[in-house]
Design a protein that fits this description.
Chain lengths: 359, 359
């Protein structure tokens, strides 16, 4: 008896499902298109015209990111559009801090098995955030990878390309001792620290469906809140600012220190803003040291602008005008000044958190 | 007794390992930089200058892709640099077919747990292929995602941005009945069909370490051969060609039909080239229908150029001159001509494979 013929579908890959979903994705992607998009869905690559740019000395700014294990939370909640927004807004912020405006976005979704609800949910969220940020979804890839992903699991990655005139590049090199740090509120964890957060939820036996005191929504919905795009704030405040730090993976330490020029350090008063309840709840549930909290989470501050003190009021006003809460949270100090070294043990690039519990 | 404090590391994420690997990746990435790269590793986004471009009417061409379950084969073989090359070459081909030259590349690597051997292997391969294609590795993201990926598993995605002058765009709209199809040899499966291939290996109890008759290397090494970049061929042959089809996921049917203008179809003589042994070996081992083979695998043809017949000899010569084997493998026919419809049941966009076994 002849053995049964094996097909790609038997190997866990359904090309027809892939083609059907591609067509639905194409329709959603098209809704983001502007007159600079020359490609048709189905082209091997997406085409974006740079003809007659307003930038005289154009510099492309590119970044790639994922949303980490927030994908697992979205799966648990069975809500997928918000992580699409997370992905785009995270990428937008990463290039906006250098002064760029976004041009286009590309997404990658890989899954253990095709799940149309998940894929179209994610793409809806991506398209929504793209439109909000004036960015087009010019390409994407959806891959079915049984064996690599755990059953029902999936992952997302996105790449963004933006543009800035060379003269408008924000590099952070002008940051100097005496500058102030202005922090803008995050919506929650944004896209970082979810592996630790989910472990803390488990350790503290927290319930994602419960609305804990001090939270406005259930814990699950609080944790799922999308990453904020600070694009319009940055575009308006950019000219008064020496540098921006997007507080993502690695928390305060890593993301502030990476833009500090040699010889400077940052002193942050963590009492300058109220730590949102979501962070203290996770800290208590997980029994996590306060120091660790600030090196993993954004602790309520999603974006930091560093500027001369005389610009502080104007920057805070711009934050308010673009829909953000903001506070003056610290200053840049001379890391080589002897008094600072003696008093705080400061070194170049260090982020000193004033008010931190020694636990 | 106080409970032990939990850290990010306890949650399966090692930020120090991430920072250490980032620095090693940074060094490798820098080796690909050219004078258009303005960013320093550690910037939030990568900066690429477009000042004084040679293109008068510049169009950016962007694409994103993964390498599918070839990542699993690489893990089994414990060789990771070749899939880095796969990732870049696949993306390069996807934009080259539209006439673009690559500018820069961004990578995303996610893993169940950090594995320096895997990450640096992949990045070495990416950097090598970037240099070969005149492309810079301008950014990347490495994510540790326990819980999402199966133990020891990982995934890769890459995005590429290239550029082409509007007048040099290759769109396929000029493809007309009478045009010939010239196929260029692939190195093997390239980056598609690995889920089916690995199932076939299992079903046929093939041994990855064995050198089967008709293969030059062991089965494992044959399967691991990197995707070929056809960039230099396309750049030299582009002006004589109406369209290119990069034979990737979906095999012949999907990738040829996507560039065929309305009213045309493709007739391919599958006896025009010798199907490499790797494909027949997998077909026999997996007991796979011949029809299915052509809609999943490239069957030995990685790139197809469609051009007027008078250009055929020149194109084949250009293929040879750029290091590729090439054959005339078919013709474009009028899909609406009654004789064709009656004889072959042809419809617009159809890819008819002449010589296919009816199994």
């Amino acid at each position: 008896m002849a053995k049964k013929k094996m097909s790609y579908k038997d190997a866990g890959v359904d090309i027809n499902a892939a083609v059907n979903i591609s067509s639905r994705i194409g329709t959603i992607a098209k809704s983001t298109f502007n007159k600079r998009v020359l490609s048709h869905v189905g082209n091997f690559g997406g085409l974006f015209s740079l003809i007659k740019l307003k930038e005289k000395n154009p510099i492309l700014v590119a970044s790639v990111d994922g949303v980490g294990t927030k994908v697992q939370l979205a799966r648990t909640m069975n809500i997928f559009n918000t992580i699409g927004q997370d992905l785009v807004n995270h990428c937008v912020d990463d290039i906006a801090v250098q002064g760029a405006r976004p041009l286009f976005f590309l997404d990658y979704i890989a899954l253990s098995t095709f799940n149309a609800h998940c894929i179209t949910g994610v793409i809806d969220g991506i398209a929504k955030a793209c439109k909000q940020n004036g960015c087009v979804l010019i390409g994407g890839e959806t891959a079915e990878m049984p064996g690599v992903y755990r059953r029902g699991e999936y992952d997302l990655a996105g790449s963004i390309v933006g543009i800035v005139d060379k003269n408008a590049l924000i590099t952070g090199t002008a940051i100097a001792p005496g500058d102030c740090l202005i922090g803008l509120a995050s919506s929650g964890l944004h896209t970082n620290g979810y592996s630790l957060a989910l472990k803390a939820v488990k350790r503290g036996k927290l319930n994602l469906k419960r609305k804990y005191t001090g939270l406005r929504k259930t814990l699950g919905m609080e944790l799922l809140k999308p990453h904020i795009s600070y694009l319009s704030f940055i575009q308006k405040a950019g000219r008064y600012v020496h540098g921006f730090a997007h507080i993502t993976g690695g928390g305060f330490d890593y993301n502030i220190s990476r833009i500090l020029p040699n010889g400077t350090a940052a002193m942050i008063d963590i009492q300058a803003w109220k730590t949102p309840r979501i962070f203290t709840l996770l800290q208590e549930a997980g029994i996590i040291a306060q120091r660790e909290m600030y090196s993993v989470f954004n602790m309520g501050i999603g974006m930091i602008a560093i500027a001369p003190p005389r610009q502080a009021a104007r920057i805070i006003q711009t934050a308010h005008a673009t829909g953000h809460r903001a506070w003056e949270i610290g200053t840049i100090i001379n890391a080589s000044a002897r008094a600072n070294v003696r008093k705080n043990g400061l070194t170049t690039g260090m982020v000193h958190l004033k008010g931190l519990a020694h636990d």
